[in-house]
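Troubleshooting entry. The earlier prediction with S-adenosylmethionine gave an output that would not parse, so I re-checked the input for stray whitespace and re-submitted. Clean input:
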Amino acid sequence: MALVHVDVEPSQGPLPERVAAFVRAANERIDAFFEERWKDPIVAFVPSDLALTWRVLDAIGRAKLAPGPVFCEWGCGFAAVAGLAALAGFQACGIEIERPLLEQARRLAGDFELNVDLVHGNFVPDDAGELADCANEFSWLAEGGPDGHEALELDPDDFDVVFAYPWPGEEEVILRLFDAYAAEQALLVTFRGMEGLRVQRKVSAGRPASIPRFDSRPGRRGRNDPPRREQGAR
Ligand SMILES: C[S@@+](CC[C@H](N)C(=O)[O-])C[C@H]1O[C@@H](n2cnc3c(N)ncnc32)[C@H](O)[C@@H]1O
């Protein structure tokens, strides 16, 4: 297996009203959380650029780049990205190891009436072994805790799109985990700070890099449609 780069041109223009309201609320709540916990910060939590992330998720939906609708945010924090994925028409879920963040995430999704499945747990599969080893002494990747995928009742290869924001220099771990556990043709979207977002697809050697199938926009096949497997697409 290999990961190949997928070119995605972020969508342009003003954000849809509901998306703009969600981004504003998420950023305000995140700022308030940081202020409240300045003496006791959760150091691994840094939010992505939500407006830019929306533009990339929206573009993925419009260009039908994902093989299906199931989206997971690995290490979701406030689950603002999972919320954006839901707004873009995906069936979104998220896994977070820090309970105070998970509480915030559930409140945010609830207040916007977004159907996002959020669980407490670790997204690193139990048997990942050295795939999850970080070179850095201080790693963002939490260890221990319950199995997040088990809590979701999903396996990593059930996801059509995985999103993660690893600390700079630690993206390799996410790439290794995704390459080992994700389904073929699934997309990995990573936020990379100043460099923006990167989209990669898992392919087997010799297969074409881009097999578009799923259009997440409302009116197309979307979050309320039957899972892809029931349609026999995989
Ligand atoms: C850099 S923050 C990104 C938050 C959010 N995804 C975003 O993009 O705004 C990384 C998050 O991953 C969580 N995290 C780190 N290791 C984890 C693990 N092994 N399992 C679940 N969550 C983890 C941290 O607690 C933190 O909330």
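This one parsed fine. The chain has a mean pLDDT of 89.
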